[in-house]
Amino acid sequence: MQVHRHWQGLLPDARGASVAMGNFDGVHRGHQTVIDLARGPQPLGIITFEPHPREYFAPQAPAFRLMNAEARANRLAKLGVKQLYELPFDADLAGLSPEAFAAEVLVAGLGIAHVVVGADFRFGKGRTGTAEDLRRLGDRLGFATTIAPLMAIGGEEVSSTAIRRALTEGRPRDAATMLGHWHRIEGEVIHGEKRGRGLGYPTANMSVAGLHLPKLGVYAARVDVLTGPQAGGYMGAVSLGVRPMFGENAPNLETFLLDFKGDLYGQHLSVALVDYLRPEMKFDGLPGLLDQMARDVATARGILAQL
Question: In this predicted structure, what is the pLDDT of residue 283?
Answer without folding.
Answer: 77
